[in-house]
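Support reply, case 0932

Customer input (verbatim):
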Amino acid sequence: MSERTIQLEPSTIAALLNAQRNEITESIIYERLADKVKDPHNSEVLRAIAHDERSHAAFYRQYTGKDVKPRRFKIWWFYLIARLFGLTFGIKLMERGEEEAQEIYARIEDKVPGMRKIIEDEDKHEHQLIDMLDEEMLKYVGSIVLGLNDALVELTGALAGFTLALRDTTLIAVAGLITGVAASLSMGASEYLSTKTEEGENPLKSSIYTGIAYIFTVAFLISPYLIFDNLFLCLAIALLNAIIVIFLFTFYISVAKDLSFKSRFGEMAGISLTVAAITFVIGFVINHFLGVDA
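Our regenerated output:
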């Protein structure tokens, strides 16, 4: 296909070159991921997206008249993210980062014939393909959320209460660990029984995801009590750890599932910190009026 001969402004050419480089870069990322994933369905979807990206790059090449090199760091970075945290998360995070570029392309669509169709393809077709990806962890995200939520609410509350009632970091850590392990087993069993009545999910896997999410959260929350001696420093770090867990997981879910980050983060953080505050007061009452002191 011959190159376009219409005259474009330097700023438009620069935007098209940037778009061309993005498309080439992302096509390589998709191709590399397609070579590595074991699931034939996911591999086919990734190759289809890579093909679309290359066709878009060829479209931009008609107007720029130049060949561009891919962004090597971006290839390495998003390939690593997708391998560590899952295809859906890695790909949607990458596509989310292109929103600013899409706004720039939208401003020049009237200057470049065919640009509108390319933008529509990017918004529609590629998102449809991404939604076709099939990942096990996303199937059981409800079980993971259950484990995380319960661990955050119960353990932040328990640790806040233990801090004033027991007044010994080692004793608090032991009590928190015992409480957490027992609760994780209980939650895993409950999830197994509840999922057993539903279709489409493996009850054993659901219970394992719930239990693992719970116990990892417990370990992270009680870790300050195993390191520091100051009671209130330990409690402050534990609460900070809870906020970190909520932030990271909410961000992951908001990207992978296309959900609102702010509302979910605010809700989870608000519940956990409110329960912690209430049980902190209960711990104070127990310690002060009942004389429970380690």
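We compared this against your earlier run and they match. Two observations from our side: The domain at 10-134 is CATH 1.20.1260 (Ferritin). The chain is about 80% helix and 0% strand. Please reopen the case if you see a mismatch on your end.
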